[in-house]
Amino acid sequence: MTFQHYRQEVLALTMRWVRRLSREKFSMLFTLVQPMLFWLIFFGSLFQRAANIQILDAPNYMSFLAGGVVVMTVLNNGLAGGVDLLFDKENGFLERMMSTPIHRSSVILSRYLFVMAITGMQILVILSIAFVFGVRLETGLPGIAVILAIGMLFGVGLTAISMGIAFSVKSHGDFFSLLGFLSLPMIFLSSALVPLSAMPGWMQVVAMVNPMTWVIDAVRPLIITGWDAAIPQVALAFVILAVFDAVCLYGGAKAFRRAIG
Predict the structure, then answer these.
(1) In 10 A of CB 226, how many CB atoms?
(2) Bigger pLDDT: 260 or 171?
């Protein structure tokens, strides 16, 4: 198979996901605005006056929360990335597709590209709304590019986890149960909503082994501090995410091979 044929496969499968979403107008609108509306505006406005600025080490709670909402969006989208493949598996479409002469990795890559494209648009919407609420991105447009790159890299491992679960469970009920079990603890046992220094000791220990914390700690200074503080955190996050993605891809690939025989 030539690279051109492989690229055409990936593009065709990616456009399939796009067309499916475009037929669900309400779902598409909710997908784009939900993180911004519920987390950034409602949650941020609710705790804006209650938060201790000295503990946050940020101009205000909205500025502190913006980085957390960005990473939470990547988390939720990545972990939900395998749901459509699960439905394809349940209705037999995935098995029929695997019987065609296509490269199996194109199915995985197309799904990742689609999920990350939606995630990238959501991140841009979140940062735009945060700007309206007075959050000024200290690193400017280059900082947005780095935030997107970090999000895409984090999304690799998360999407691999989601697809591994989708290929391993027998029903979408089991999938969504596991999804809820993973996503909420990862959010609350991280620095998304409060800094590590405000957590109980045992939560700090757990948060330190949560890769989401390291991603947030790389994104947050890009928004509120500037390059001097951000560069070491970004470099560390890239190293941690490289290890995280390698482990997740290995596990996801094993689940995929086991599911399709």
Answers:
(1) 15
(2) 171
